[in-house]
Amino acid sequence: MVVDDLGLSFESVYNVNRTLKRYIDTQVQQGDLVAILRTGAGIGALQQFTTDKRLLYAAADRVRWNMNARVSPFEAVAPEDTKIDALQVQFFTVGTLGAIRYVLRGVAELPGRKAIVIFSDGFKLKDADNHYGQVLDELRMLVEAANRAGVVIYTIHAVGLEAGGPSASDQFAGQTRQRQIDIREGQDGLEFLAAQTGGLFIRDTNDLPAGIRRILDDQQGYYLLGYVPDRSTFSGGGTKFHALDVRVKRPNLQVRSRSGFLGQPDAAAKPRTPADRMMAAVTSPFGGGDIQLRLTSFFGQVEKLGPVVQSYMHVDANELTFEPQADGKHIAQLEVLAVTFGENGEVADRTNRRYTVTLTPDRYAQALKRGFVYTVRVPVKRPGPYQLRIALRDVKSDRIGSSGHFVDVPDVKKGGLTLSGLLIQGVSPQAVGAQSGDSVQDIDPNASVAVRTFRQGTDASYASYVYNAKRGPSGATQLDVEVRLFRDGIQVLHSPLPLPPQAAGPAILAGGLLRFGNGFPPGSYLIELTVIDRLAKKNGRATQTIDFDVVE
Known about the structure:
The protein is an alpha+beta fold. The protein has eight helices and 26 strands.
Protein backbone atom coordinates (compact mmCIF):
# COMPACT_ATOMS: atom_id res chain seq x y z
CA MET A 1 0.00 0.00 0.00
CA VAL A 2 1.73 3.16 -1.23
CA VAL A 3 0.28 6.38 0.16
CA ASP A 4 1.30 9.30 -2.02
CA ASP A 5 1.41 11.87 0.77
CA LEU A 6 3.31 14.11 -1.65
CA GLY A 7 0.10 14.19 -3.69
CA LEU A 8 -2.80 14.08 -1.22
CA SER A 9 -4.99 16.93 -0.05
CA PHE A 10 -5.87 17.35 3.61
CA GLU A 11 -9.32 15.80 3.01
CA SER A 12 -7.89 12.87 1.05
CA VAL A 13 -5.40 12.08 3.82
CA TYR A 14 -8.30 11.65 6.27
CA ASN A 15 -10.14 9.31 3.89
CA VAL A 16 -7.04 7.24 3.14
CA ASN A 17 -6.16 6.94 6.84
CA ARG A 18 -9.63 5.65 7.67
CA THR A 19 -9.57 3.27 4.68
CA LEU A 20 -6.23 1.76 5.66
CA LYS A 21 -7.37 1.04 9.21
CA ARG A 22 -10.52 -0.66 7.96
CA TYR A 23 -8.40 -2.69 5.54
CA ILE A 24 -6.12 -3.82 8.41
CA ASP A 25 -9.10 -4.69 10.63
CA THR A 26 -11.16 -6.62 8.12
CA GLN A 27 -9.07 -7.72 5.16
CA VAL A 28 -5.48 -8.46 6.26
CA GLN A 29 -5.35 -12.22 6.78
CA GLN A 30 -2.92 -14.19 8.93
CA GLY A 31 0.34 -14.60 7.03
CA ASP A 32 -0.29 -11.72 4.58
CA LEU A 33 2.91 -9.79 3.90
CA VAL A 34 1.96 -6.11 3.74
CA ALA A 35 3.71 -2.75 3.83
CA ILE A 36 2.25 0.75 4.11
CA LEU A 37 4.69 3.23 2.61
CA ARG A 38 4.56 6.98 2.27
CA THR A 39 6.20 8.61 -0.73
CA GLY A 40 7.41 11.51 1.41
CA ALA A 41 8.94 9.38 4.18
CA GLY A 42 11.97 7.68 2.62
CA ILE A 43 12.88 4.35 4.25
CA GLY A 44 11.58 5.14 7.70
CA ALA A 45 10.84 2.84 10.58
CA LEU A 46 7.31 2.07 9.41
CA GLN A 47 8.31 0.94 5.94
CA GLN A 48 9.15 -2.76 6.16
CA PHE A 49 6.87 -5.51 4.87
CA THR A 50 5.36 -7.33 7.81
CA THR A 51 2.66 -9.72 9.01
CA ASP A 52 2.42 -7.73 12.28
CA LYS A 53 -0.80 -5.72 12.47
CA ARG A 54 0.70 -3.54 15.22
CA LEU A 55 3.27 -2.27 12.73
CA LEU A 56 0.61 -1.71 10.09
CA TYR A 57 -1.57 0.25 12.54
CA ALA A 58 1.43 2.39 13.46
CA ALA A 59 2.09 3.05 9.78
CA ALA A 60 -1.54 3.99 9.15
CA ASP A 61 -1.57 6.32 12.18
CA ARG A 62 1.28 8.30 10.67
CA VAL A 63 -0.36 8.90 7.33
CA ARG A 64 -0.75 12.65 7.70
CA TRP A 65 -0.94 15.66 5.46
CA ASN A 66 2.51 16.56 4.16
CA MET A 67 3.28 20.28 4.12
CA ASN A 68 5.57 19.63 1.15
CA ALA A 69 2.76 18.07 -0.87
CA ARG A 70 2.22 19.15 -4.44
CA VAL A 71 -1.49 19.55 -3.57
CA SER A 72 -1.86 22.99 -2.03
CA PRO A 73 -4.52 23.60 0.65
CA PHE A 74 -5.19 26.97 -1.01
CA GLU A 75 -6.74 27.59 -4.40
CA ALA A 76 -4.76 29.60 -6.92
CA VAL A 77 -6.01 33.18 -6.79
CA ALA A 78 -4.93 34.28 -10.23
CA PRO A 79 -4.30 32.64 -13.62
CA GLU A 80 -0.63 33.71 -13.62
CA ASP A 81 0.01 31.40 -10.66
CA THR A 82 -0.80 28.36 -12.78
CA LYS A 83 2.65 27.94 -14.34
CA ILE A 84 4.45 28.23 -11.00
CA ASP A 85 2.10 25.64 -9.49
CA ALA A 86 2.71 23.32 -12.46
CA LEU A 87 6.48 23.43 -11.90
CA GLN A 88 6.02 22.55 -8.24
CA VAL A 89 3.64 19.71 -9.11
CA GLN A 90 6.11 18.30 -11.66
CA PHE A 91 8.93 18.34 -9.10
CA PHE A 92 6.97 16.45 -6.44
CA THR A 93 5.46 14.05 -8.98
CA VAL A 94 8.96 12.89 -9.90
CA GLY A 95 9.61 12.38 -6.16
CA THR A 96 6.48 10.22 -5.90
CA LEU A 97 7.51 8.02 -8.81
CA GLY A 98 11.02 7.64 -7.37
CA ALA A 99 9.55 6.35 -4.10
CA ILE A 100 7.44 3.80 -5.99
CA ARG A 101 10.54 2.59 -7.84
CA TYR A 102 12.16 1.97 -4.45
CA VAL A 103 9.29 -0.38 -3.64
CA LEU A 104 9.71 -2.15 -6.98
CA ARG A 105 13.39 -2.80 -6.27
CA GLY A 106 12.44 -4.36 -2.95
CA VAL A 107 9.85 -6.79 -4.36
CA ALA A 108 11.62 -7.60 -7.64
CA GLU A 109 13.44 -10.63 -6.24
CA LEU A 110 10.28 -12.26 -4.87
CA PRO A 111 8.84 -14.99 -7.10
CA GLY A 112 5.45 -14.80 -8.75
CA ARG A 113 3.02 -11.93 -9.07
CA LYS A 114 3.11 -8.96 -6.73
CA ALA A 115 0.71 -6.06 -6.29
CA ILE A 116 1.17 -2.40 -5.39
CA VAL A 117 -1.82 -0.24 -4.51
CA ILE A 118 -1.27 3.52 -4.83
CA PHE A 119 -3.51 6.08 -3.08
CA SER A 120 -3.11 9.50 -4.70
CA ASP A 121 -4.97 12.60 -5.80
CA GLY A 122 -3.29 12.00 -9.14
CA PHE A 123 -0.65 13.65 -11.27
CA LYS A 124 -0.62 15.13 -14.74
CA LEU A 125 1.35 13.74 -17.65
CA LYS A 126 2.08 17.18 -19.09
CA ASP A 127 4.66 19.69 -17.85
CA ALA A 128 4.33 23.39 -17.07
CA ASP A 129 4.33 24.23 -20.80
CA ASN A 130 1.53 21.71 -21.46
CA HIS A 131 3.95 19.31 -23.18
CA TYR A 132 4.62 15.65 -22.45
CA GLY A 133 7.98 15.67 -20.73
CA GLN A 134 9.82 14.35 -17.70
CA VAL A 135 6.79 12.98 -15.86
CA LEU A 136 5.77 10.78 -18.79
CA ASP A 137 9.36 9.59 -19.22
CA GLU A 138 9.52 8.68 -15.52
CA LEU A 139 6.20 6.88 -15.78
CA ARG A 140 7.40 4.80 -18.72
CA MET A 141 10.55 3.77 -16.83
CA LEU A 142 8.41 2.92 -13.81
CA VAL A 143 6.09 0.78 -15.92
CA GLU A 144 9.07 -1.00 -17.46
CA ALA A 145 10.54 -1.73 -14.04
CA ALA A 146 7.16 -3.00 -12.76
CA ASN A 147 6.62 -5.31 -15.71
CA ARG A 148 10.11 -6.80 -15.45
CA ALA A 149 9.63 -7.31 -11.71
CA GLY A 150 6.26 -9.03 -12.15
CA VAL A 151 4.40 -6.24 -10.33
CA VAL A 152 0.83 -5.23 -11.10
CA ILE A 153 0.02 -1.65 -10.08
CA TYR A 154 -3.46 -0.74 -8.88
CA THR A 155 -4.30 2.93 -8.43
CA ILE A 156 -7.00 4.58 -6.32
CA HIS A 157 -8.01 8.19 -6.96
CA ALA A 158 -8.30 9.31 -3.34
CA VAL A 159 -10.19 12.50 -4.21
CA GLY A 160 -13.36 10.44 -4.57
CA LEU A 161 -16.43 11.65 -6.44
CA GLU A 162 -15.96 15.33 -7.26
CA ALA A 163 -18.41 17.84 -8.61
CA GLY A 164 -17.02 19.85 -11.48
CA GLY A 165 -19.62 22.60 -11.32
CA PRO A 166 -19.26 26.17 -9.99
CA SER A 167 -18.12 26.61 -6.41
CA ALA A 168 -18.63 29.44 -3.93
CA SER A 169 -14.84 29.67 -3.65
CA ASP A 170 -14.37 30.45 -7.37
CA GLN A 171 -12.70 33.85 -7.61
CA PHE A 172 -12.28 34.41 -11.34
CA ALA A 173 -13.91 33.44 -14.59
CA GLY A 174 -12.84 30.10 -15.95
CA GLN A 175 -11.87 28.65 -12.57
CA THR A 176 -14.74 26.15 -12.77
CA ARG A 177 -13.61 24.91 -16.18
CA GLN A 178 -9.99 24.74 -15.00
CA ARG A 179 -11.04 22.60 -12.03
CA GLN A 180 -12.81 20.18 -14.37
CA ILE A 181 -9.66 19.97 -16.50
CA ASP A 182 -7.49 19.42 -13.42
CA ILE A 183 -9.72 16.57 -12.21
CA ARG A 184 -9.59 14.84 -15.58
CA GLU A 185 -5.87 15.39 -16.18
CA GLY A 186 -5.01 14.43 -12.60
CA GLN A 187 -6.42 10.96 -13.28
CA ASP A 188 -4.34 10.43 -16.43
CA GLY A 189 -1.14 9.36 -14.68
CA LEU A 190 -2.94 6.91 -12.36
CA GLU A 191 -4.87 5.42 -15.26
CA PHE A 192 -1.66 5.08 -17.29
CA LEU A 193 0.12 3.15 -14.50
CA ALA A 194 -2.74 0.71 -13.99
CA ALA A 195 -3.43 0.12 -17.68
CA GLN A 196 0.20 -0.43 -18.65
CA THR A 197 0.86 -2.99 -15.86
CA GLY A 198 -2.43 -4.90 -16.01
CA GLY A 199 -4.02 -3.39 -12.91
CA LEU A 200 -7.27 -1.59 -12.11
CA PHE A 201 -7.87 2.14 -11.77
CA ILE A 202 -10.44 2.97 -9.07
CA ARG A 203 -12.00 6.39 -9.65
CA ASP A 204 -15.11 8.48 -9.03
CA THR A 205 -16.11 6.80 -5.79
CA ASN A 206 -16.21 7.88 -2.16
CA ASP A 207 -16.20 4.26 -0.99
CA LEU A 208 -12.45 3.64 -0.97
CA PRO A 209 -12.75 0.38 1.05
CA ALA A 210 -14.95 -0.99 -1.75
CA GLY A 211 -12.13 -0.14 -4.15
CA ILE A 212 -9.71 -2.19 -2.07
CA ARG A 213 -12.19 -5.10 -2.09
CA ARG A 214 -12.29 -4.97 -5.90
CA ILE A 215 -8.50 -5.08 -5.96
CA LEU A 216 -8.31 -8.00 -3.53
CA ASP A 217 -10.96 -9.88 -5.52
CA ASP A 218 -8.84 -9.31 -8.61
CA GLN A 219 -5.95 -11.09 -6.85
CA GLN A 220 -7.96 -14.29 -6.49
CA GLY A 221 -7.39 -15.61 -10.00
CA TYR A 222 -4.84 -14.83 -12.69
CA TYR A 223 -2.39 -16.43 -15.09
CA LEU A 224 1.32 -15.71 -15.00
CA LEU A 225 2.85 -16.17 -18.45
CA GLY A 226 6.55 -16.09 -19.26
CA TYR A 227 7.95 -14.68 -22.51
CA VAL A 228 11.55 -14.73 -23.76
CA PRO A 229 12.04 -12.30 -26.67
CA ASP A 230 14.13 -13.14 -29.70
CA ARG A 231 17.72 -11.86 -29.65
CA SER A 232 16.98 -9.47 -32.49
CA THR A 233 14.65 -7.59 -30.15
CA PHE A 234 17.71 -6.13 -28.38
CA SER A 235 19.85 -5.44 -31.43
CA GLY A 236 20.46 -2.06 -32.99
CA GLY A 237 20.44 -0.10 -29.73
CA GLY A 238 17.73 2.32 -28.74
CA THR A 239 14.71 1.71 -26.56
CA LYS A 240 12.00 0.69 -29.03
CA PHE A 241 8.72 -0.31 -27.40
CA HIS A 242 7.41 -3.79 -28.22
CA ALA A 243 3.70 -4.30 -27.68
CA LEU A 244 2.30 -7.51 -26.22
CA ASP A 245 -1.25 -8.60 -26.97
CA VAL A 246 -2.85 -11.47 -25.05
CA ARG A 247 -5.95 -13.03 -26.65
CA VAL A 248 -8.28 -15.82 -25.57
CA LYS A 249 -10.57 -18.00 -27.68
CA ARG A 250 -13.44 -18.29 -25.22
CA PRO A 251 -16.13 -15.67 -25.90
CA ASN A 252 -17.32 -13.07 -23.38
CA LEU A 253 -13.97 -12.82 -21.60
CA GLN A 254 -12.03 -9.61 -21.11
CA VAL A 255 -8.23 -9.82 -20.92
CA ARG A 256 -6.20 -7.34 -18.91
CA SER A 257 -2.43 -7.70 -19.16
CA ARG A 258 0.83 -5.79 -19.42
CA SER A 259 1.04 -3.70 -22.53
CA GLY A 260 4.61 -4.53 -23.60
CA PHE A 261 8.27 -3.87 -22.92
CA LEU A 262 11.23 -1.80 -24.06
CA GLY A 263 13.78 -3.50 -26.28
CA GLN A 264 16.74 -3.10 -23.98
CA PRO A 265 18.53 -5.83 -22.02
CA ASP A 266 18.56 -5.91 -18.25
CA ALA A 267 21.35 -3.83 -16.78
CA ALA A 268 24.32 -5.89 -15.65
CA ALA A 269 24.56 -6.09 -11.89
CA LYS A 270 27.55 -4.19 -10.50
CA PRO A 271 29.73 -6.01 -7.97
CA ARG A 272 29.10 -4.85 -4.42
CA THR A 273 31.37 -4.90 -1.40
CA PRO A 274 30.30 -6.74 1.78
CA ALA A 275 29.62 -3.35 3.39
CA ASP A 276 27.34 -2.40 0.48
CA ARG A 277 25.46 -5.69 0.75
CA MET A 278 24.97 -5.35 4.49
CA MET A 279 23.65 -1.81 4.13
CA ALA A 280 21.32 -3.03 1.37
CA ALA A 281 20.08 -5.75 3.73
CA VAL A 282 19.16 -3.35 6.55
CA THR A 283 17.47 -0.86 4.19
CA SER A 284 15.55 -3.51 2.24
CA PRO A 285 11.77 -3.63 2.72
CA PHE A 286 12.24 -7.33 3.56
CA GLY A 287 14.05 -9.33 6.20
CA GLY A 288 15.60 -12.73 5.62
CA GLY A 289 18.48 -13.61 3.34
CA ASP A 290 20.90 -16.52 3.53
CA ILE A 291 20.90 -16.63 7.36
CA GLN A 292 17.59 -16.80 9.22
CA LEU A 293 17.39 -14.46 12.23
CA ARG A 294 14.72 -13.90 14.89
CA LEU A 295 14.64 -10.43 16.45
CA THR A 296 12.65 -8.96 19.34
CA SER A 297 12.95 -5.32 20.44
CA PHE A 298 11.32 -3.47 23.32
CA PHE A 299 11.37 -0.07 25.00
CA GLY A 300 12.73 0.51 28.50
CA GLN A 301 13.75 3.43 30.72
CA VAL A 302 17.26 3.07 32.16
CA GLU A 303 18.60 5.29 34.93
CA LYS A 304 21.28 7.72 33.66
CA LEU A 305 20.73 6.57 30.06
CA GLY A 306 17.06 7.45 29.67
CA PRO A 307 14.92 5.65 27.06
CA VAL A 308 16.60 2.74 25.28
CA VAL A 309 15.64 0.11 22.72
CA GLN A 310 16.84 -3.30 23.88
CA SER A 311 16.97 -6.05 21.25
CA TYR A 312 17.61 -9.78 21.25
CA MET A 313 18.50 -11.62 18.04
CA HIS A 314 18.57 -15.40 17.77
CA VAL A 315 21.11 -16.90 15.35
CA ASP A 316 21.00 -20.47 14.03
CA ALA A 317 24.56 -21.78 14.41
CA ASN A 318 24.02 -24.32 11.62
CA GLU A 319 23.94 -21.46 9.11
CA LEU A 320 27.35 -20.14 10.22
CA THR A 321 30.81 -21.37 9.25
CA PHE A 322 32.77 -22.61 12.27
CA GLU A 323 36.39 -23.60 11.74
CA PRO A 324 37.81 -26.38 13.95
CA GLN A 325 40.95 -25.53 15.90
CA ALA A 326 43.84 -27.73 17.07
CA ASP A 327 42.59 -27.58 20.67
CA GLY A 328 39.15 -28.88 19.69
CA LYS A 329 37.40 -25.53 19.82
CA HIS A 330 35.41 -24.02 16.95
CA ILE A 331 35.70 -20.39 15.81
CA ALA A 332 33.40 -18.26 13.63
CA GLN A 333 33.94 -14.68 12.48
CA LEU A 334 30.76 -12.58 12.47
CA GLU A 335 30.11 -9.01 11.37
CA VAL A 336 27.01 -7.25 12.71
CA LEU A 337 25.50 -4.02 11.38
CA ALA A 338 22.69 -2.58 13.52
CA VAL A 339 20.82 0.53 12.34
CA THR A 340 17.94 2.17 14.19
CA PHE A 341 15.62 4.16 11.91
CA GLY A 342 13.29 6.89 13.11
CA GLU A 343 9.85 7.72 11.75
CA ASN A 344 10.93 9.54 8.60
CA GLY A 345 13.97 7.50 7.73
CA GLU A 346 16.54 9.33 9.83
CA VAL A 347 19.24 7.13 11.35
CA ALA A 348 18.95 7.37 15.14
CA ASP A 349 21.90 5.06 15.80
CA ARG A 350 24.28 2.86 13.86
CA THR A 351 26.87 0.31 15.00
CA ASN A 352 29.08 -1.99 12.97
CA ARG A 353 31.18 -4.54 14.82
CA ARG A 354 33.05 -7.76 14.17
CA TYR A 355 33.01 -10.63 16.66
CA THR A 356 34.98 -13.82 17.06
CA VAL A 357 32.77 -16.54 18.54
CA THR A 358 34.80 -19.31 20.20
CA LEU A 359 33.04 -22.51 21.30
CA THR A 360 34.29 -25.48 23.26
CA PRO A 361 33.29 -28.89 21.85
CA ASP A 362 30.34 -29.15 24.26
CA ARG A 363 29.10 -25.64 23.58
CA TYR A 364 29.54 -26.16 19.83
CA ALA A 365 27.31 -29.25 19.93
CA GLN A 366 24.71 -27.36 21.96
CA ALA A 367 24.84 -24.32 19.65
CA LEU A 368 24.17 -26.52 16.61
CA LYS A 369 21.01 -27.76 18.33
CA ARG A 370 19.77 -24.50 19.81
CA GLY A 371 21.71 -21.55 18.42
CA PHE A 372 22.58 -18.49 20.49
CA VAL A 373 21.33 -14.97 21.13
CA TYR A 374 23.00 -11.66 20.26
CA THR A 375 21.95 -8.60 22.28
CA VAL A 376 22.19 -4.90 21.54
CA ARG A 377 21.07 -1.81 23.49
CA VAL A 378 20.52 1.50 21.68
CA PRO A 379 19.77 4.78 23.54
CA VAL A 380 17.10 6.93 21.85
CA LYS A 381 17.11 10.71 22.06
CA ARG A 382 13.40 11.38 21.67
CA PRO A 383 10.10 9.47 21.77
CA GLY A 384 8.47 8.11 18.65
CA PRO A 385 8.33 5.01 16.45
CA TYR A 386 11.60 3.22 15.74
CA GLN A 387 12.69 0.09 14.01
CA LEU A 388 15.96 -1.66 14.68
CA ARG A 389 17.27 -3.51 11.65
CA ILE A 390 20.20 -5.87 11.97
CA ALA A 391 22.29 -7.52 9.28
CA LEU A 392 24.65 -10.35 10.21
CA ARG A 393 27.41 -11.58 7.89
CA ASP A 394 29.31 -14.82 8.23
CA VAL A 395 32.77 -13.59 7.21
CA LYS A 396 34.03 -16.99 6.08
CA SER A 397 31.14 -17.81 3.71
CA ASP A 398 30.12 -14.17 3.04
CA ARG A 399 26.47 -15.12 3.66
CA ILE A 400 24.17 -12.41 5.05
CA GLY A 401 20.90 -12.46 6.94
CA SER A 402 18.78 -9.60 8.23
CA SER A 403 15.79 -8.93 10.46
CA GLY A 404 13.91 -5.98 11.92
CA HIS A 405 11.51 -5.22 14.74
CA PHE A 406 9.27 -2.24 15.45
CA VAL A 407 9.04 -0.49 18.80
CA ASP A 408 7.14 2.66 19.77
CA VAL A 409 9.02 4.71 22.40
CA PRO A 410 6.58 6.74 24.55
CA ASP A 411 7.37 10.07 26.20
CA VAL A 412 7.87 9.12 29.85
CA LYS A 413 8.55 12.77 30.76
CA LYS A 414 4.92 13.72 30.09
CA GLY A 415 4.00 12.08 33.38
CA GLY A 416 1.25 9.78 32.14
CA LEU A 417 1.15 6.11 33.07
CA THR A 418 3.62 4.29 30.80
CA LEU A 419 4.69 0.68 30.33
CA SER A 420 7.97 -0.64 29.05
CA GLY A 421 7.93 -3.27 26.34
CA LEU A 422 6.33 -6.56 27.35
CA LEU A 423 8.71 -9.53 27.63
CA ILE A 424 7.88 -13.21 27.70
CA GLN A 425 10.39 -15.99 28.26
CA GLY A 426 10.82 -19.43 29.78
CA VAL A 427 11.07 -19.57 33.55
CA SER A 428 14.30 -21.60 33.64
CA PRO A 429 16.21 -21.23 30.34
CA GLN A 430 19.18 -23.55 29.96
CA ALA A 431 22.65 -22.28 29.14
CA VAL A 432 23.26 -23.26 25.51
CA GLY A 433 24.96 -20.46 23.65
CA ALA A 434 28.36 -19.00 23.01
CA GLN A 435 30.28 -16.34 24.88
CA SER A 436 31.87 -13.34 23.24
CA GLY A 437 32.24 -10.44 25.65
CA ASP A 438 28.89 -9.07 26.77
CA SER A 439 27.15 -9.47 23.43
CA VAL A 440 26.33 -13.17 23.10
CA GLN A 441 24.28 -14.71 25.90
CA ASP A 442 23.56 -18.29 26.95
CA ILE A 443 19.80 -18.55 26.40
CA ASP A 444 17.66 -21.44 25.27
CA PRO A 445 16.07 -20.03 22.10
CA ASN A 446 12.79 -21.87 22.67
CA ALA A 447 12.45 -20.06 25.99
CA SER A 448 14.15 -16.75 25.13
CA VAL A 449 12.64 -13.35 24.49
CA ALA A 450 14.12 -13.47 20.98
CA VAL A 451 12.24 -16.52 19.62
CA ARG A 452 9.13 -16.67 21.87
CA THR A 453 8.26 -20.28 21.00
CA PHE A 454 7.17 -22.53 23.86
CA ARG A 455 6.44 -26.21 24.03
CA GLN A 456 3.39 -27.73 25.68
CA GLY A 457 4.09 -28.65 29.28
CA THR A 458 6.43 -25.70 29.92
CA ASP A 459 5.99 -22.42 31.80
CA ALA A 460 6.70 -18.85 30.73
CA SER A 461 6.90 -15.60 32.65
CA TYR A 462 5.79 -12.24 31.30
CA ALA A 463 6.79 -8.85 32.68
CA SER A 464 6.67 -5.12 32.02
CA TYR A 465 7.89 -2.12 34.02
CA VAL A 466 5.36 0.54 35.07
CA TYR A 467 6.50 4.18 35.01
CA ASN A 468 4.84 7.30 36.45
CA ALA A 469 2.45 5.49 38.77
CA LYS A 470 0.71 7.93 41.14
CA ARG A 471 1.21 7.56 44.88
CA GLY A 472 -1.27 8.23 47.67
CA PRO A 473 -0.68 10.10 50.97
CA SER A 474 1.16 7.10 52.38
CA GLY A 475 3.39 6.93 49.32
CA ALA A 476 1.88 3.63 48.12
CA THR A 477 0.49 2.92 44.64
CA GLN A 478 -2.95 1.60 43.75
CA LEU A 479 -2.62 -0.34 40.49
CA ASP A 480 -4.82 -2.95 38.86
CA VAL A 481 -3.66 -5.34 36.15
CA GLU A 482 -5.69 -7.01 33.41
CA VAL A 483 -4.25 -9.86 31.36
CA ARG A 484 -5.90 -11.01 28.14
CA LEU A 485 -4.74 -13.90 26.00
CA PHE A 486 -5.75 -14.22 22.35
CA ARG A 487 -5.33 -17.25 20.10
CA ASP A 488 -5.58 -16.50 16.37
CA GLY A 489 -7.40 -13.27 17.22
CA ILE A 490 -9.97 -14.85 19.59
CA GLN A 491 -9.83 -14.08 23.31
CA VAL A 492 -9.28 -17.25 25.35
CA LEU A 493 -8.36 -15.77 28.75
CA HIS A 494 -9.19 -12.65 30.78
CA SER A 495 -7.67 -12.34 34.24
CA PRO A 496 -8.05 -9.10 36.28
CA LEU A 497 -5.97 -8.87 39.43
CA PRO A 498 -4.66 -6.11 41.76
CA LEU A 499 -0.96 -5.28 41.89
CA PRO A 500 0.44 -5.21 45.45
CA PRO A 501 1.08 -1.61 46.62
CA GLN A 502 4.66 -0.43 46.27
CA ALA A 503 6.11 2.62 47.96
CA ALA A 504 9.59 3.02 46.49
CA GLY A 505 11.47 2.95 43.22
CA PRO A 506 11.02 4.82 39.91
CA ALA A 507 9.61 1.71 38.17
CA ILE A 508 7.26 -1.05 39.28
CA LEU A 509 7.39 -4.58 37.90
CA ALA A 510 4.09 -6.01 36.67
CA GLY A 511 4.03 -9.59 35.47
CA GLY A 512 2.97 -13.15 36.04
CA LEU A 513 3.24 -16.75 34.93
CA LEU A 514 1.69 -18.67 32.04
CA ARG A 515 1.48 -22.45 32.21
CA PHE A 516 1.32 -24.26 28.87
CA GLY A 517 0.03 -27.65 30.01
CA ASN A 518 0.16 -30.72 27.81
CA GLY A 519 -3.43 -30.03 26.77
CA PHE A 520 -2.74 -26.38 25.90
CA PRO A 521 -3.70 -25.97 22.19
CA PRO A 522 -0.77 -25.19 19.88
CA GLY A 523 -1.06 -22.02 17.83
CA SER A 524 -0.18 -18.35 17.55
CA TYR A 525 -0.98 -16.28 20.63
CA LEU A 526 -0.93 -12.66 21.73
CA ILE A 527 -0.79 -11.60 25.38
CA GLU A 528 -2.12 -8.14 26.31
CA LEU A 529 -1.11 -6.58 29.63
CA THR A 530 -3.09 -3.54 30.79
CA VAL A 531 -2.28 -1.54 33.94
CA ILE A 532 -4.86 0.83 35.49
CA ASP A 533 -3.78 3.52 37.97
CA ARG A 534 -6.71 4.12 40.33
CA LEU A 535 -5.05 7.29 41.70
CA ALA A 536 -4.60 8.98 38.32
CA LYS A 537 -7.18 11.54 37.25
CA LYS A 538 -6.22 11.22 33.57
CA ASN A 539 -3.88 9.14 31.41
CA GLY A 540 -4.18 6.37 34.00
CA ARG A 541 -4.33 3.39 31.67
CA ALA A 542 -1.52 1.80 29.63
CA THR A 543 -1.34 -1.38 27.53
CA GLN A 544 1.41 -3.48 25.96
CA THR A 545 1.22 -6.64 23.85
CA ILE A 546 3.59 -9.33 22.59
CA ASP A 547 2.97 -12.35 20.36
CA PHE A 548 4.32 -15.88 20.82
CA ASP A 549 3.80 -19.45 19.59
CA VAL A 550 2.97 -22.68 21.40
CA VAL A 551 4.06 -25.91 19.70
CA GLU A 552 3.56 -29.58 20.46
